[in-house]
Each structure stands twice: as C-alpha cells, then as structure tokens.
Amino acid sequence: MSTSLSDRLTAELSGLRESGLLIHPRVLDSASRARTRVDGREVVNLASNNYLGFADHPALKARAAEYLERWGVGAGAVRTIAGTLRIHEEFESQLAAFKHTGSALVLHSGFTTNQGVLGALLRDGDLVVSDELNHASIIDGLRLTKATKKVYKHADPDDLERLLKEHDTDGLKLVVTDGVFSMDGDVAPLDRLVEVARRHGAVTYVDDAHGSGVMGESGRGTVHHFGFEYADDVIQVGTLSKAWGGVGGYAAGHGDLRQLLINRARPYLFSTAQAPATVGALSAALDEVQRDPTLMARLWDNTRYFKAELQGLGFDIFGSTTPITPVIFGEAPAAFEASRLLFERGVFAVGLGFPTVPRGLARIRNIVTAEHTRDDLDHALQAYAEVGRKLSIIS
To answer: Where in this chain does the record put each Aminotransferase class I/classII large domain (predicted)?
Structure first.
C-alpha cells in the first residue's frame, strides 16, 4: 500500500518535533528595523539581514512609490517576451557601473540566480570546485548541472590547488565560493583563491550575498575589497534582498555574461520580471550608499563594538570578522532556549541548528546593522550576559 500524504506529513513533522528542529517563525508586526515589533513585543532586532537599514528607508520608499505610480504594480510578462521595462535595463546598467563589471543581469532571488548562472555556464566535461561551506543555493544549483563536481576544504587554497591539479579538463573550470559565509561570518581569502584559479586557467565565481553592501568601497562587495572588480575571469552573483533592502538576485561580470544568461538562464526565461516598485527601491539604494558614506561607517563601528563586548563577556563568536556574529551554544536545544530567553528580554535573535549548521555548533546568528544605536546594542549585550550565565555558557 502506498503512503498517504497525511501519513507522510505526520511522520516528517513528528521527526522534526522529536529532534527539537521544528521551526515556528516569529511574525513581525511592523517594518523590519533595528527596533521593531515581533509577536506583539517591542524588541531589538538582531535577526535581519538589513545591514544598511534600507528595508524601511525613506529614500527607497519614495523611489518605489514613484516607479509604482509611473510603471504600475507589475511588468506583465517574462523579460524575453514583453516584460523588460526601460527601468529594468537602466537599473542593470547602474548595477554594472557600481560593481565595475562589463555587464549585469537581475533575476528574482539570490537562490535562483545561482541555479540560473551555474546551469547556463556549466556543461558535461566541465569541472567545478566548490567550498565545503558554500550556500545551499550553490549546492542545489550544481546538482542541476552535468559538470564534474569536487569540494575543497573550507577557505583552503592549498586544497583547492590539489583538486585542480588532480582533475584537469579541457572544459571550463570554475572555482565557486561565498564571499562572506552566511553562518560563520568569515571572509573567503579571494586574493589566494583567484591566484590559484588563474594558475590553472579557472574562472572564479563569488556568491557575495552577504558581502555586497558590506565589503569594499561603498559596499561594492568582497570582489572589490580584494581588487578584482574589473577582472573578466571573476563572476559576481548575489542577492538584492539583504543590504539593499529589496528582493532579487544579480549576476555581474564579463561583458558577454549578461547576453548568455538572457538566452540560457532558466529562472530568467520562465519568471515574470521584477515589479517596478522593487526596481525603484533598488536603484535608490545604490544611489544612497554612494551619497552617504556614514552608512558603511556606522555598520562597521557597530560591528566592532558588538563583537568586542560579546568576547569580553566570554562568548565564542567563532572568529567572525563581519557583521554576521554567531554566538555558539553547542546543541540545537540550547540555542533555541537561548533565543527564547533573549526574546523575553526584548532581543530578537534566532537560534540555528542542524542541518543549517553542523551538529555541535548550534548558534544564534546576530547581524548588526548601520541603524542600531549604541543603546540598542547595550540592551542586547545585557540580555546576552543574563542568558549566557543562566545557561552556564559564560561565567
């Protein structure tokens, strides 16, 4: 007898519940800001990716309203049929100029961008070598290709070189890495990775979801931070939903990359174009980050302060060097309990366990933003001190 849908759902949910991994997302009752309302409670928000405070920024909302009024609520079609509005192409030109690349194309999310770009580029006989801690969207995107897939040790140029030597090919060779790793907050050593890739004729592919808007001059990203933004053998992909405050993904790089993706990237070919209001908000975000250098300065000032104070309390932040600041609690139940206790103290910070992070390294991932005040951070630090001592994580 076949399994019924009801039986399958019950079994899967029971397994998650018994392992302590069943997720019940909290609900925001107001806009995502440094202080917001969650499930009816006023909290300091350390859970969002709103690095520059753009999710509710007046300049972005004004441009979104302007584009909404002029261009309507939707594009009405996929880009390749009748959905490419003039504002789509103008924003892509703006993004390429900002990223210092030959071209750029916008897709619907960072997740689908990895599926689309990797699927468009890679063929049978190609070789792709991927960091072991790369984002799930990279892993899923690579599963859809026929390229030979190898995994190198996290952020290890020597292991990358070993694999490139052992698995040479006449096809395309692609080295794939996150720019900033989303769970640990560390930065890929792009200077050494690109050097190794070039020695073996490989292209470097950087998912800069958490680096764009955070690293480099005016938030141009990790590739810019390491000085490779003009390089045709480096591809940048990422999301427009974190630091940039909107939604969508992008691919930027070689001048011909955009045209290939227009013709081959399946998420682009079979999805309706981005809504005009989203395009307007994103265009304003790129203008604003270049107009106001204090945004980046506040982001990094807050980051340095928060990390130093957490370490001073005795917490393990896992060597993070970016605004992503994990606090390690060990097993998932401890991280989830810490999250609950923090929420009781007015701090919204989410616990993460396996399979999002490895067993034994469950954590709360905190993200500091440019919008947080020193009072916000001090409130969070006091709550962390109380919770850490209550759970015997710190003394």
So the answer is: 42-383
> What are 143's two structure tokens?
């599963």
Distance CA 188, CA 222 (A): 8
Task: Give catalytic residues, as residue numbers.
Answer: 182, 210, 242
Mind listing the pLDDT tens digit of every residue in the chain (395 residues)? 899 999 999 999 999 999 877 888 999 999 999 999 999 999 999 999 999 999 999 999 999 999 999 999 999 999 999 999 999 999 999 999 999 999 999 999 999 999 999 999 999 999 999 999 999 999 999 999 999 999 999 999 999 999 999 999 999 999 999 999 999 999 999 999 999 999 999 999 999 999 999 999 999 999 999 999 899 999 999 999 999 999 999 999 999 999 999 999 999 999 999 999 999 999 999 999 999 999 999 999 999 999 999 999 999 999 999 999 999 999 989 999 999 999 999 999 999 988 889 999 999 999 999 999 999 999 999 999 999 999 999 99
The answer to whether residues 365 and 343 touch, using CB atoms and an 8 Å cutoff, is no
Domain containing 313 equals: 21-54+293-390
Q: Are residues 124 and 67 part of one domain?
A: yes
pTM tops 0.85: yes
| Residue whose structure tokens are 């969650």 | 38
Residue 315 and residue 221 share a domain: no
CATH number at residue 225: 3.40.640.10
